[in-house]
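Expect chain and fold; thus:
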Amino acid sequence: MDEAALKRVFRELQVKIIDNVNPDSAIDILNSKEIISDTEYEKLFDDKDPNSRCRQFLLLLRNSSHPEAFIHLREALVEKYPLIVDEIDKKLGITPQTAQQQQQLQQGQSTDGKFLLPK
């Protein structure tokens, strides 16, 4: 999955994401994977408004030097926000089958050699 393309799509969908996603679980996941630091984590939770916290979180990730920040963010949203992830995937040209195959690879499951993602 192309991080730059994913970053662009998240920016395109920013308003929808801010209005519909409570960022707390994604913030927790990205902190546990050390994509955001403990200091950044604490600073995000200084803001009590979830929409504002989501906005700050997206801005933090856009400014991050982590090479897979948005890939991890997409994965963090899969379970609770499948409709948003489907829209992200559609904009990237990813079919449900390739998304499932990617998830299997990340979980260490076999894809029977049928893993092809569009570039």
User: Anything to note?
Assistant: The chain has a mean pLDDT of 86. The chain is about 65% helix and 0% strand. Residues 1 and 9 are 12 Å apart (CA to CA).
